[in-house]
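Late entry, written up from scratch paper. The run itself happened at the end of the previous shift, but nothing got recorded in the book at the time, so transcribing now.
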Amino acid sequence: MKLFAEDVKLYAEISTDVDVADLPVSHALSCIAEWADMWQLQISVTKCCAIHLNPKYVYSPVKQLAFNGTHLPTHQSVRDLGIW
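Output as recorded:
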């Protein structure tokens, strides 16, 4: 996890099919949601997304990531601090 101002980035290495079935990012998202709820912070879920850097798993049946019940879209690229 990396934090910068109000941004949070989560990373997870997916190198086997077992990793695909049980994404550690899903657990981390749940923990962040719990923490935000405890501190009464609102997360702008519409600004959240997932990006896959390994083409092997982009189109595999990865369970879709969700934050507080809202599914996160998957993008091929994202703009971060003005850089694509």
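The first strand starts at residue 2 and ends at 4.
(Scratch paper discarded after transcription.)
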